[in-house]
Amino acid sequence: MRWKASLLLTLLFSGLSLPAADVLHLKDDAILSGRVLAEKPDQVFLDVGYTVLAVPRSQIAKITRDEATPASRKPKKSAPAPVEQPASAAVTGFYRTGMAATERPVRELASRLAEAVVQVRTPAGLGSGFILNEDGFLVTNFHVIENETQISVEVYRQNGPQLERKNYKRVRIVALSKFADLALLKIEDEGAPKFMSVPVGDSESLTVGDRVFAIGSPLGLERTVTEGIVSTKTRPMQGDLYLQTTAQINPGNSGGPLFNLRGEVIGVTNMKITFGEGLGFAIPAETLRYFLNHRDAYAYDNDNPANPYRYLEPPRRLKGVPAKGGHSLATPETNR
Q: Which of the residues 66, 143, 189, 301 is marked catalytic?
């Protein structure tokens, strides 16, 4: 029954799928449209835009792939796929994509990027985040600020040999996605300077074994750098796919960036296995970019701070138009 309900929900929202899509033809004549992320002997993982479905192979009659998307998505190590510039970024410059064509040592990148990694504090605890543009827009996890509106952001600036801390207390919630565990904030303190920012990369071009590193505030220890590799790109957890990494992640890292060696954010760290080491997870950059490109759909409603969604009024029947059965449901009040 749960599978049937999920299938019905997918069909109702199939209009949200991207134009370039793969199609799963199911044995009950239903169709699922989206992007195949991974295939396993017993399941196919399909990205339908707002979530990722694990479709049993026993339910699939055939798979039709979009011509623009080749059957094999394994990136070539010598020539990684170019990062597509999102339309919103190209027009507004809301966030950058791409940084350098060549890989650099972690010690060099950590020094260059650390100023854009911040600590996010609420009365309930703390987490990490990273700045997207010079105007002070930043990303963290939804669970870091969940049920909180009193938020402060601590930014660290390198002034020669000295480390300067600046605490910003006027922080506005711009957009929230509970299911993707992402939040978009903006620093709005008067006199705030232009901020350092980091580019958003492409996690699809990663290969298992690629080196990555995280910067964050585990247990409140700000600007902590940990290095590791990509263990897998498609680890299913609670219905979504995550990047798994051996880079050490602990409470306080939540919402911080996971970088590749080109200095691009390829994931947002958000959880770990508590009874093991080297078992950290990050939200893929593609999920982050979708959230940012559609941030208006996730806009935080200040009139209803407990709910990130804004509901529209239902359409009203026109006066004089009879309902089915010949009886009119129109009243003077419904046509005002």
A: 143
Same-domain pairing of 167 and 223: no
Residue with tokens 């979009």: 66
Provide the 10 A C-beta neighbour count for residue 223.
Answer: 17
Task: Give the domain range for residue 45.
Answer: 2-64
303 among known catalytic residues: no
The answer as to whether 122 is a domain residue is yes
Query: Average pLDDT by consecutive 10-residue portion of the chain (336 residues)?
Result: 36 36 78 80 76 80 66 42 37 68 88 92 94 95 92 88 86 93 95 91 90 93 93 89 94 95 94 88 95 91 62 69 50 41
Residue 135: active-site member: no
Q: Which of 161, 187, 213 is the last residue of a domain?
A: 187
Same domain, 170 and 217: no
Is residue 148 assigned to a domain? yes
* Number of structural domains found in the chain: 3
Considering the domain architecture, whether residues 210 and 287 belong to the same structural domain is answered as yes
The one catalytic residue among 22, 181, 202, 240:
181
The CA-atom distances, in angstroms, between 98 and each of 65, 86, 106, 209, 244 are 28, 12, 17, 21, 22
Please answer whether residues 218 and 279 qualify as being in contact, where contact means their C-beta atoms are separated by less than 8 angstroms.
no
Q: Is residue 271 part of a domain?
A: yes
Query: Of residues 33, 177, 203, 254, which has the active-site annotation?
Result: 254
- Is residue 111 annotated as a catalytic residue, yes or no? no
Whether residue 270 contacts residue 141, with contact meaning beta carbons closer than 8 Å, is answered with yes
Residue 259 maps to a domain: yes
pTM for this model (two decimals): 0.65
Domain match, 209 and 245 both: yes
